[in-house]
Amino acid sequence: MCASLTRLLGATSLLAAILTGLADAEPIHVRFAQGSSHGFLAIRTLDGKLIATGESTQIVHGDRVTSRLIFRFRDGSIDDDTTIFTQREVFRLVSDHHIQHGPSFPKPIDFIIEATTGNLTTRVEDGTLTKEHMDLPPDVSNGLPPNLLLNIPPSTAETKISYVVPGKKPRLILVSIKPTGSLAFTVGGLRRQATDFTLHIELGGASGMVAPMIGKQPADYHIWLQSGAPPAFVREEGPLYEGGPIWRIEEISPTFGR
User: Which positions carry the signal peptide feature in this UniProt record (predicted)?
Assistant: First the structure.
């Protein structure tokens, strides 16, 4: 399981600076509490080339969950995201620490959100730390999808969540989540269907019309889940940084022998 929307938003501070009029959003209610887990993932290009492998871990202590997703790229790049959240009736972010560096990422990221205090810390390439405070809404969700999506009924027309975009001047933006279709897939020869959840960064006012015209509208992100109790993660697709290529994230299984 992974939380790659943080990567999609990782370098969109230019767009965040022109966002206006954030609509109301609310924390996602817990339908399926998250448990301890350990899984393996891969990032591939859309033509199937393997470019990174990763591990996803979750450790539960009471109602607090520590989730970590780390990808190691073949070119030496690292994408490492550690998220702590609680799940008392609703999901609430405690903290998120996201690091991206290496040849695959034109703009390195080392960004910490402390949601309970509103403190934001950014480490730039020379090691300098910059800190500032932001009044964060209770639904701020850095590092949480698709954990949140597992708890959104596919019949829900639209859900909105808040995100903090890292940068020299961190910004608060809104993401719209909608079920927009389905994807057929097979497991062990059995045909199944997954719901396509589209995650769209909303640009308000005139900037929402101008951004697509000048090529600055961030690409949508897609997460496919098979419905059930609980739902099952199937696939993710989207850029991991602003203007980056569309990459695909899927679970992988170990292989044995030489």
Answer: 1-25
**The tokens 């695959």 sit on which residue?**
104
Distance CA 76, CA 94 (A): 30
Which is higher by pLDDT, 253 or 43? Answer: 43
DSSP 3-state of 239:
coil
Q: Please tell me whether residue 231 adopts helix, strand or coil conformation.
A: coil
pLDDT of residue 99: 96
Give pTM, 2 decimals: 0.85
Query: If you compute the radius of gyration of the chain from its CA atoms, what whole number of angstroms results?
Result: 18
- Listed in sequence order, the residues at least 6 apart from 219 whose beta carbon sits closer than 8 Å to its beta carbon are 8, 238, 239, 246
DSSP 237: E
All residues at 6 or more sequence positions from 248 whose CB lies less than 8 Å from its CB, including other chains: 43, 44, 45, 46, 235, 236, 237
Determine what percent of the chain falls in helix, strand and coil, rounding each to the nearest 5.
10, 50, 45
CA distance 30 to 90: 5
Residue pair 160/137 in contact (Cβ under 8 Å)? The answer is no
Q: Does 216 score more than 90 pLDDT?
A: no
Which segments of the chain does DSSP mark as H helices, in order?
A: 5-9, 13-16, 205-213
Residue with tokens 């300098």: 128
